[in-house]
Every structure is written in C-alpha cells, then in structure tokens.
Amino acid sequence: MEALQYWMQGFSVATLPINLMFALIGCVLGTLIGVLPGLGPAAGTAILIPITFNLDPIGAIIMLAAIYYGAMYGGTITSVLVNVPGEAASVITCFDGYQMAKQGRGGPALGIAAIGSFVGGTFATFALMVVSLPLASFALRFGPPEVFALLVVGLSLVTGLAGRSLLAALIMTFFGLLLAMIGMDPVRGAPRFTFGVQDLYDGVGFVPVVMGLFGVGEILVSMEQPVLEVIKTKLSDLFPKRKEWGISSAAIGRGTIIGFFLGLIPGIGAIIPTFLAYVVEKKVSKHPEKFGTGVIEGVASPETANNSYANAAMVPLLTLGIPGSPTLAVLMGAFIIHGLTPGPFLFKERPDVVWGLIASLYLGNVILLILNLPLVGLWAKLLEIRYQYLYPGILLFCILGAYSLNQSVFDVTMMVLFGIVGYVFRKLDWPLAPAILALILGPMMERSLRTSLEMSGGDLFIFFQRPISAVLLILAAAILVTSAIRLMPMWARKESKN
Amino acid sequence: MKRPWQIASLIFVFLSLFVLIHSFSYPYKDRLGPGPGFFPFWMSIITGLLSLGLFLQTTLGKSDPTEKSSFFPNREGGLRIVLILASLAMVVVFLNPLGFRVSLLLFLFFLPIFLGVRNWVVIPILAVAGSFGVFHVFYYWLKLPLPIGIFGI
Predict the structure, then answer these.
(1) pLDDT for residue A488 is more than 90
(2) Distances (CA, A) of A110 to A240, A304, A413
(3) Which residue of B has its CA nearest to A400?
(4) The pLDDT value given to residue A227
(5) Residue A474 predicted with pLDDT over 80
(6) Half-sphere exposure of A315 (CA within 13 A, CB side)
(7) Complex ipTM value
(8) A56-104 pLDDT per residue, tens
(9) Is A14 exposed, middle or buried (CB count within 10 Å of its CB: 0-12, 13-18, 19+)?
(10) How many CA atoms lie within 13 A of A14 on its CB side?
(11) Positive or negative: CA dihedral A244, A128, A157, B2
(12) B9, B20, B92, B131: best mutation site toward chain A, by most A Cβ within 10 Å?
C-alpha cells in the first residue's frame, strides 16, 4: 500500500508539464550524444550538468537521467549505419546491425532496436519500482563494514570484467583511488596532496576528469582515423517482416531478462549484458551460423538488454548509492551537486525525487520510442557532419562544461590534461571505467574503511565477523580470482578460439 | 605494445613511490583510529606492487604476435592531435584575459582551418554562432557565469 502511494506520488511529479519537457529535452540530447561519434554518454552527461545548475533538483535529475538512457539508444544508430559504436554497449550491435544496413535493411534494424529498447526499459523500470523499496530498507541495516565490502565488490566487478590484463585494470582502479585522495581527508577534514594549490582543496573534480578521459581523449584517438563512412540504406520502412516478429519477440523477452538481472549487480557495466544476450541468442537459434550476417534477433536481443540494463542499473545507484558505470557515476555526481545523496536515506528524505525519477523513466521510454521511430532519418543525417566541424563543436561544449562547474580555468586545464591521459590509456588499451568509478567511490571507501577500523579498535577481522561483509568480501575475492584465471594465457587462447 | 606497457608501469611505480613518501607527512594513526596517512600509505604500496608486477609480466612475457595497432599515430594523425591540443592550450591561456566570446571565436575559427577546411562562408558563421551565440544562450538565458575579458566582451 505504501509502495502504491509512492508510485502515485512519483507519477504526479513526473507528469508535471515542466518535468515532461525536461525528460523530452534529455531524450533528444541523449540520443544526440549517442549518435555523435567522439562523445560517449559519460562525457556527454558530464558536459550537460552545468545546464541544470539553475534548475529545480527533480527537473535536473530527470533531464540528466533521460540523457543517460537516450544515449544508450543513440549509440545504436552509429553502430548500424557506420559500424562504429556510439557508446561501448552498442559494440555487439555492429555485428548484425551493420550487415542488415549493408543489405538495405537499416530501417528494420533501427526499428527493432527502438522497440526492444522500449520493452526492455519499461520492464526494468517496473521491476525497479517493485524491488527498490525493500532493497533500500534492507540497505539501511548496512554499517561501515558492509558499505566497504559492497564497494570492494563493485570495484572488483568493474576491474575483473575490464580489459585484457587484470593487472592493468587493477592499476587503473588504484589510480582512481590515488586521485580520490587529493583534497580534504574525508574523515578528519585535513588537506592532503594539495601542494598548496587552492583549486585542489575540493579534490580532483570528477566532471573535468570524465570530460577529459572520455570526451577529449576519445576525440584525440579518433583524430588518427577521422573519416566515417555512412552506409546509404533505406530508412523509410522501420518494421521487420511479418515472419521476423516471432523471432524478434522471443529475443526481446530474453534480452529484457538478461539486461535486468545483470543491471542489478553494481559494477558489471553495460557491455557484459549485451554480449551475454547475443551469445544466448546464438545458442538458442536454429541457425547460429547466420549470426554476424545480418539476422534481426542479433540486433533485437542485445539492444533490449542494453536498455533493460540501463534502467535496472538505477537500482544499485538509488538504493545503495553505488554507480555501476562511468555514466552512472556522473549521474551520481549530479545528484551530489544538487544536494542529494543517492542511497537508502534518499528514499526517506526525498521520496519526491526518487519516485519522480523512477516514474520519469517510464515516460522517457515512451518519449524515446515516439522520438526515435519517425526521426531515425534525421539522426542518420547528423552522421554526415564533417569531423572538422563536429569535433571543434564538441570541444566547445567540453570547455563550457568544465569551466562553468566552478567558474575556473583550472578545471579546463584539468580536462585537457586528463584528455591526454585518456588518449594514452586508450592507446595502451588500459580500461578507463575502473579509474572513474574508483575516483567517485574513493572517499566513500576510505571513510567506511577507517570508520570500521575505528569501531573495531584497528582489528581487520571486523569485516569477517559480520556475515554480510564477510560474504561480500569472499565474493570480491572470487571475482578477482576468476578473472585472473580467465585471463591466463591458456584460457584466453581457448576463449578466443570459441 | 610491449615497450609502452613497460614505460607506463614504470611511471606508476614512480608515482606510487612519490605518494608513499608523501604519505609519511600525514599521521598514520591518531587517538581515534587510522589517520589521514593510513589510506595513502596502503594504496601507494598496493599500486606500487601491482605496477611492478605488470612491469615484470610484460618484460618476461612474449609479445603478442596478433598485435596490430601501434602506440604512436601516423604523421597526419599526430599532427591533427598536436593542433587540437595546441588550440585547447590557447583557450586555457586566453579564456580569462580575452573572455569566452573572443577566445572561443578564435578557437572555432582556426581549428577547422588547421584541420583542413577551406569553406570561408561556413567557418565564420559557425565560429560566431559557437562563441557569441553560445555565450548568449548560456550567460543570459541559462544564467551561467562565463568569463568576460579585458575588452568588455
């Protein structure tokens, strides 16, 4: 009954005309970010945070969340038409989506992706409504040791699943933690590693870092091979053939379930659910050999899983305060900028924000469907903008976004420096996501570790005396050991053969 | 990619040594429990060990024969990257003294030219729209404070 009241409250907030407008603007901007090469969802969301400074927190969060899931769909368009994923989770869509476009069936590929994204996103939002309240109540029992253990699990997952070297991924995680130590000590409030620089007292701003690593860094990498070839394909007919509906519906169903359950695990990232959805689809198919040649279920299932994951990943963010991906880390930062702390207490303190946001996800999915089916041709046109005009434009918004956070040129400088760092790491093929998550979770992790040790008088066994934290830490160790085994030369070779 | 990985891991070894040495300037423990030096001390030790491990693994391991990509860009790509970074550095230097409008006008005018565009109609239009137009939207409509330079624009 209590849940029903909250749902009603959420819809009354989300359906206010002003909030509907913010959701619409967010969906348009998000799709644009997803479509434009050189601008991923993390950097795109970060750039647009300053736009929301003078908005009411609910409107701001609704708009930024819409940008996040809008970008998830937008990435599909570049995957299908250019064979370059607009964001990492759309990599798998290139396999069959691009082949369909080459056969003149780009329209149905984008159409089924939009429909699948709608179904997956809507289901995940409904499930989010059902599970978030009990989960948030459960999370209220967490003390510092449990929070620390949970953060270790999240970082282990994002580390263990990233890149081709576990050591490199771990170094990136610790790099993020080292960066997080700059500024005020989160427990005692004393300045650390500031070297007398006033601008560092507030720490390294995660927004300039995200814009640098994911925005500027990406542009620098794409400068090496800047020309994109857009496939000319028929986009007037967006619906699949009649016989394809059956196969697509089953694929959408499986993608929804996979995306949702994996979205609940903090730190898993958007790539794993889409890959798993594709693999499952291939396994259950009667003609697995045709995958990669342009089969519709090869687009439907991963695209559904992608948006189902995107909505489900809000569960750990809202109930536990743990972002599962760099984009969600940016969204969490936006919450903090607007004076809101994601986590179980937010459900008690600002139910209007939490339930308004959740209800807006429903409406956002409808907006995306309405927006994307008729406007596919327009989005495709954007891909024809020459990179010589596009990249300076993206950099303009990066400069604007970085500067307006604190009205400081120092932040712009940090963005440029981290752009170079991001370029180097991309070239090295070291994963960036663990560094970003560690940067944003670092202060929380240090605080919970030190408070736990204060509680136990310095005894590390406190983490194993409490059942939840013990189980979580064992799980984290298991994740890292499994990843290490998976990346051992003999296993890696076996896997790549498969 | 063997040599860049070795260099990168060595840089991290030195970075963690720097953090470790610097962590000694903060108390490791205080009367309540772990002090501000506790976390940096352990983080730097773990990062150092991991980096050393990666350095040894890369040095002792075989190069991947399937590796195709090179760490360094080709000449044209490298030049484009340098031009973009130089333009961004100019913005950083001139943003406060010249203001948002003038510094971004110059940035948006010259960067497309550096990247090979020679359309003398489109470039000025985009430069003015991207500098004066964007300033107007964000400064007057969205009320975001942006720098105004010595010329009052």
Answers:
(1) no
(2) 10, 12, 39
(3) B146
(4) 65
(5) yes
(6) 30
(7) 0.95
(8) 899 999 999 999 888 877 888 888 887 777 667 778 888 898 889 888 8
(9) buried
(10) 29
(11) positive
(12) B92
Whether residue A429 and residue B1 make contact (CB cut-off 8 A), yes or no, is yes
Nearest to B36 among A192, A412, A454 (CB): A192
Contacts A497 to B, Cβ<8 Å: none
Distance between A191 CA and the closest CA of chain B, angstroms: 9
**Chain centroid to CA A120:** 16
Residue A267 pLDDT = 73
Judging contacts by C-beta atoms under 8 Å, the chain B residues touching residue A449 are: 34, 39
A202 touches chain B (CB under 8 A): no
Mean pLDDT value of segment A388-403: 91
Angle at A55 between CA A54 and CA A60, to 5 degrees: 130
Note the pTM of the prediction, 2 decimals: 0.88
The answer to whether the CB of B106 falls within 8 A of the CB of B94 is: yes
Kindly list the residues from chain B whose CB atom is less than 8 angstroms away from the CB atom of residue A181.
19, 39-40, 43
Which of B9, B35, B130 has the CB atom closest to A396's CB atom?
B130
The ranges assigned to domains in chain B are 2-60, 75-141
Query: What pLDDT digit, counting tens, does each position of A238-284 carry?
Result: 778 877 788 889 999 999 999 999 988 877 777 889 989 998 998 88
CB-CB contact of A418 with A212 (8 Å): yes
Contacts of B95 in chain A (CB under 8 A): 399, 403, 409, 412
